[in-house]
Amino acid sequence: MKHIVIILLCLLGMYPYVLNAKDTNAKQYQDSILKIAQAMPNTIVKLTYLRDMAYRHQYAPYNKTFSAALYEEARTQKNITYKNLGAYYLASCYDKLHDPDSLTYWVDKLKAYAPEVGTYDYYLEQKAAISRALASKRQIEKAVYVAKEALEESLKYNSNNGEIASYNSLGCAYGVSSRVDESLKIFLKAYQRFTPQTKTNLRVDILSRISQVYGNSGRDSLRAIYLRQMDEVLQEVIRREPETRKNWSNFEIDCQIKYVLLYMNKGTFHIAQEHLNKVKSLLEDHVDPVFWLNVQLVQLQHYARTKEYDKSIALVDEVTPIVLNHYVSTFATLINYKASTQINKGNIDGAIETKRYLIRTQDSLDNAFSANQLQQMKEIYHINDLLLEKQKIKDTNYKQGFLFLITLMVLVLIFYLYTRYLSRKIVTAEKVTADAAMQAEADNVTKDRLQSEISHDIRTPLNVVVGFAELLTESKELTAEAKAEYGKMIQENAENLLKYVNSILELSRLESGKTQYVQEECEVIALCRKEMSIAEQAGNGHINIRLKTDIESLMISTDKNWFSSLLSSLLVPSENDGDTYNIVIRIKHDEEKNMLFFRVIGTPLAKMRFENKTALIRHEINAHFIHAFGGIYKVQADTSEGPLVSFSIQVNS
């Protein structure tokens, strides 16, 4: 039972749902505050009043209203300090909603304000919050990257609060990806970096997370140490600022829930119940509803540990309507917990009926689960096993023989089918082995050839570089002109060698999947004209490019940077190429096939295809990009029109 409740608590933590405030006077209260502010003159007094309101009401539904009012008034008065503060509070609103896009918008604002304000704390705290929002959406690698980037900036700007917030986000990202030990090390490192200037909310958050990790690993003695510190910090700030009490309610509830779990593990259930009573007194309308449900779930666990099955079942029935309205993803787990409690109570009939209710209700939950997931749910919750157990209890006296025969027949059938399955697997494995051997042999031949070619292509310019370098260093009779010429040859061969190696590495990253394309909308004709202009400027009069198409404007979905790189490779010749090129780009849109066809006539890259390996690898890179977006890439060095590269790309891939 304990594990089921813990799983449910984790699910709720991953899917927070912010409800509208139940207080019917909330709108009137907000309006009254704003009317008072409107009556004030546009001076620092008005800004200070709005600042105090935003600081005292960092909970829904007031936080966004007062933060926005502060920000807009600061913009009107052109006060950068309060504008920075308003943007910080607005970012905090979206941090609570785990909305990385909106959070990023306000973080960009804070980044712009930081140099003018003279402190990077607000910017770095909220940048670290982006990492937590990404981690909540299971974008772990991106979350780790953002947290480390924020940490690096925090150290650069000597921001202790930014540093603590970055460690907090990094630890969260590791925790979500089940890297528990690394997560704990990061949280402890943040704890060790506390200073008198560290913000209270960061202190409380770090202490809460350390306590949580120790509690999950069963180290209650260590959990208790940090939990008491968390409680002390909370009580101190509430005593110091009683008007901000509601800002800390979520943290207070979290702290009391941890006390309940701690004392339940110790077996002192009466003390655990005292903390449960205390946490229930904190459940007011302004509290995030997820904490209300967390409290009920901890109460369920308390009932399970004290074997108060009837109370447990009654509480599940009380909570279920709220779960159906706002936490559909946890509905199945909650109902399964009820069935498990009924089984522990000995009420198998009731458990079966509860499972049937789960299946019936699941069909009406707006397709929250697919048919396959529902089937998996049946298997996970062992509904068929319960029915079979009941049947065994009723029919043991006269059905054992029949079940034995059926079982034997099933085993024979399974054995027969399994034998046939193994035979087919053996045949398939033999074919796969033979194919793999042939492929391995072909790969080895290709690898040897490629190794030989690469070795030759690298050794040739390298010999030139080494040879002329020796001449420059050992010969004392060289003229200045000869030295300049040798230096130029060294530079040209070194640059060619660098381009060749970079091309090989780039192609290797593409083929290994380490480089990922980013799909975005772009206007293809404007992009082509831009690359044509860049190429003509780079050609210094040696390149003349014409665009022939009936298309005036067309949006396509592709990787803009890679598409620009492809066009650049086709239009710009190598640095040592002194030829003049007249290039024609023809573009045709096939609406029926939803494809865009390009013909680049006179491109220097087609002419150089077999002249050097760098050009050949560049064609491979281009082809890889085009194939990734559903098109084809073709090179013809000799056509009636001249060297030609043709390729196609889907308009909306």
From TrEMBL:
SUPFAM superfamilies per UniProt: Homodimeric domain of signal transducing histidine kinase, TPR-like
Top-rank EC class of the record's enzyme: transferase
Gene3D superfamilies hit by this protein: 1.10.287.130, Tetratricopeptide repeat domain (1.25.40.10)
Domain Histidine kinase per the UniProt entry, residue ranges: 453-653
Signal peptide: 1-21
Entry keyword annotation includes Membrane: yes
Catalysed conversion reaction: ATP + protein L-histidine = ADP + protein N-phospho-L-histidine
Regions that span the bilayer: 401-418
Keywords from the named record: Kinase, Membrane, Signal, Transferase, Transmembrane, Transmembrane helix, Two-component regulatory system
Protein name: histidine kinase
Source organism (scientific name): Bacteroides oleiciplenus YIT 12058
